[in-house]
């Protein structure tokens, strides 16, 4: 058994790039596919949602107005990547009838994670107020995020919107989809590869860990993780389900044959489980039956129950 805050163990568990040596190939694919997406589909780039230079978003409107609004929040451990690396993910959603918004945010160490959370609050409030300009129905707003972006998506579902701005609806976010999310930030205070960049404090962890917060009052969170990801990424997903409960997290699944990077690519492929979940969330449909929940008991051929 590893000591809880053993640095080498934490780095093995949480350093996704080190765990996937072929990650440059994945990131290169994303960039090329995103460039193709911007060239092939109508979009408006670098729209300001706030005053800071980092507070810009790209919009990929659907062909017909009146569709739901989807905000996709990119990952990168709050310190890397860009909205421009993720344009390709907007294509299948806008083709299905959604208006997709892909925001940027400031990166650590220039800012803290709570600062980024507030930037995303501003971004979603902006989409709520201005999304109709591109034909989006802001009354049907959902958030999808990967890795650090899944953390931010969960924070948006948990946000007390009327406390932040009394003019906003309590259920500004109808639902969220978290892909390989980080919902308990405490281990990252101690992981050598990232701790000096994130500069997390105990107060930051308490305020900005979705798994440390009360369950959201509204909406649902669909949480998935790749089957080839570390035990700690698996635990992050099951912890959110345990704390928020099955009512708020009705989907808690592992996606087979997926690592931390290839799992995101499933979102862009119609017919995959992740694409099905995204469409069900976006359009308010019943979630299709899929893989057993992470950690759920199942029956073996001998009838004995074991953990997935």
UniProtKB/TrEMBL annotation:
<protein>
    <submittedName>
        <fullName>Acetyl esterase</fullName>
        <ecNumber>3.1.1.-</ecNumber>
    </submittedName>
</protein>
<dbReference type="InterPro" id="IPR050300">
    <property type="entry name" value="GDXG_lipolytic_enzyme"/>
</dbReference>
<keyword id="KW-0378">Hydrolase</keyword>
<feature type="domain" description="Alpha/beta hydrolase fold-3">
    <location>
        <begin position="70"/>
        <end position="215"/>
    </location>
</feature>
<dbReference type="GO" id="GO:0016787">
    <property type="term" value="F:hydrolase activity"/>
</dbReference>
<dbReference type="InterPro" id="IPR013094">
    <property type="entry name" value="AB_hydrolase_3"/>
</dbReference>
<dbReference type="Pfam" id="PF07859">
    <property type="entry name" value="Abhydrolase_3"/>
</dbReference>
<dbReference type="InterPro" id="IPR029058">
    <property type="entry name" value="AB_hydrolase_fold"/>
</dbReference>
């Amino acid at each position: 058994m590893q000591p809880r805050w053993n640095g080498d163990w934490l780095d093995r568990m949480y350093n996704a790039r080190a765990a996937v040596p072929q990650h440059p190939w994945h990131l290169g694919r994303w960039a090329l596919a995103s460039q193709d997406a911007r060239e092939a589909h109508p979009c408006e780039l670098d729209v300001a949602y706030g005053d800071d230079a980092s507070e810009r978003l790209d919009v990929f409107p659907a062909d017909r107005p009146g569709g739901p609004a989807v905000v996709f929040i990119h990952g990168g451990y709050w310190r890397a990547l860009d909205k421009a690396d993720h344009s390709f993910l907007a294509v299948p959603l806008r083709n299905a009838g959604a208006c997709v918004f892909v925001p940027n945010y400031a990166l650590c160490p220039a800012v803290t994670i709570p600062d980024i959370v507030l930037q995303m609050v501003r971004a979603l409030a902006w989409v709520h107020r201005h999304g109709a300009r591109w034909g989006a129905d802001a009354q049907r707003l959902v958030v999808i995020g990967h890795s650090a972006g899944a953390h931010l998506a969960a924070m948006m579902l948990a946000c007390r919107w009327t406390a932040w701005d009394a003019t906003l609806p309590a259920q500004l976010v109808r639902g969220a989809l978290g892909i390989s999310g980080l919902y308990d930030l405490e281990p990252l205070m101690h992981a050598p590869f990232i701790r000096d960049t994130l500069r997390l404090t105990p107060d930051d962890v308490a305020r900005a860990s979705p798994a440390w917060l009360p369950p959201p009052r509204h909406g649902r969170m669909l949480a998935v993780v790749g089957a080839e990801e570390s035990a700690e990424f698996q635990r992050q997903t099951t912890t959110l389900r345990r704390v928020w409960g099955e009512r708020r997290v009705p989907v808690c699944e592992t996606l087979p044959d997926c690592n931390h990077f290839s799992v995101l690519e499933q979102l862009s492929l119609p017919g995959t489980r992740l694409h099905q979940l995204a469409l069900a969330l976006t359009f308010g449909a019943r979630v299709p039956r899929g893989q057993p929940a992470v950690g759920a008991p199942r029956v073996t051929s001998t009838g004995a129950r074991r953990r997935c």
